[in-house]
Specification:
It is a single chain. By secondary structure, the chain is α+β, with helices and mostly antiparallel strands. It has two domains: about 100 residues, Phosphorylase Kinase, domain 1; about 190 residues, Aminoglycoside 3'-phosphotransferase, Chain: A, domain 2 (Alpha-Beta Complex), CATH 3.90.1200. It is built from eleven helices and eleven strands. Helix 4 runs parallel beside helix 9, helix 5 packs antiparallel against helix 6 and helix 6 crosses helix 10. The longest helix is centred in the C-terminal third of the chain and has 25 residues. It starts with a helix and ends with a helix.
Length: about 300
């Protein structure tokens, strides 16, 4: 199998390059063992190859083979737990090889095809179906936030981000770590417009979870920062962000203050990661980094101004 050139070009590490080297043989093995036939060109996300297939019964499906990474470790567990209720249906899994056989959805139609506020209402309606009692295997959101908050607190005073926001996010992060509700429900972790595809058994179904035992209010931030060009093009960034925020909070019956606090924490973590990437790679901030930081700060301010 010829891998998509854009997927090969995305490799950023020796581990990922090794994964790409092994991938064609791994896909061939899975096709043979699971008695699947390819019936379309492969596509990909940032960490996984997705191959359209059909089984012996002729039913369409997709074979997803992912690069091993912490966030996606329990994708199969989450999909099995949800049992297709609002999500893509899991047909078969081999966690050891990071391979999933999934119901085929319409990959060419996601929520970017809808007006953003209409899409926000769709996602808010899906929250209630996803936020179940978490399986015990899932990692806890508080364990991530604890580490990220310590790193944020250690950020240099001259970092290009308002110190007031850094201190606010650190205080909120530490309060969330100590709060039992932070780990109370199962959450998707990365639910945004492109992770909801059109389906046949339901109009919209969720894909690609990064599942955790977490807080439903943590889910809001990705819906604010995605489709950012549209926010900027509106001419009023603050108003555009707030309209998305309040549409989601109201439709999902979330606590506005708790959702706001999680947005602040999550956006400052985005800033942290951009700054850390530049330090780790021993380079100045790129224009993309600066744009990302500016957007994150604007979102954190907009939800509380």
């Amino acid at each position: 199998m010829r891998l998509p050139a854009s997927f090969v070009a995305a490799g950023r590490s020796a581990d990922f390059a090794g994964f790409l080297d092994r991938l064609p043989r791994l896909v061939a093995e899975l096709l043979d063992e699971w008695e699947l036939s390819v019936d379309g060109e492969p596509t990909h996300g940032s960490c996984a190859l997705v191959v359209p297939v059909h089984g012996r019964d002729g039913a369409p499906a997709v074979l997803k083979v992912g690069f091993p990474h912490d966030e996606g470790r329990y994708e199969h567990l989450a999909l099995r737990h949800w049992q297709g209720n609002g999500t893509v249906r899991l047909l078969r899994a081999d966690p050891r090889r990071w391979a999933l056989l999934l119901e085929r959805l319409h990959a060419d139609r996601d929520l970017t095809s809808l007006w953003d506020l209409e899409a926000c209402e769709v996602v808010a309606g899906l929250y209630r179906r996803l936020h179940l009692e978490p399986p015990p295997q899932l990692r806890r959101l508080s364990s991530y936030v604890d580490v990220w908050t310590d790193r944020l607190a250690a950020l240099r005073p001259d970092a290009p981000v308002p110190r007031r926001l850094v201190e606010q996010a650190v205080a909120l992060g530490r309060a969330f770590v100590a709060d039992d509700a932070t780990d109370a429900r199962m959450i998707h972790g990365d639910l945004h417009y492109e992770n909801v595809l059109a389906g046949d058994r339901e109009p919209w179904l969720v894909i690609d979870p990064k599942p955790m035992a977490g807080d439903p209010h943590y889910e809001v931030a990705p819906m604010l920062g995605n489709r950012w060009d549209e926010v900027v093009a509106s001419g009023d960034v603050r108003d555009a962000v707030r309209r998305r925020f309040h549409t989601i909070v109201d439709a999902a019956l979330l606590d506005e203050h708790r959702a706001r606090d999680w947005v602040v924490v999550r956006e400052l973590h985005h800033v942290l990661w951009s700054l850390e990437d530049a330090v780790r790679e021993d380079r100045p901030l790129s224009p993309e980094d600066q744009e990302w930081i500016t957007a994150s700060v604007a979102i954190a301010k907009a939800v509380q101004d």
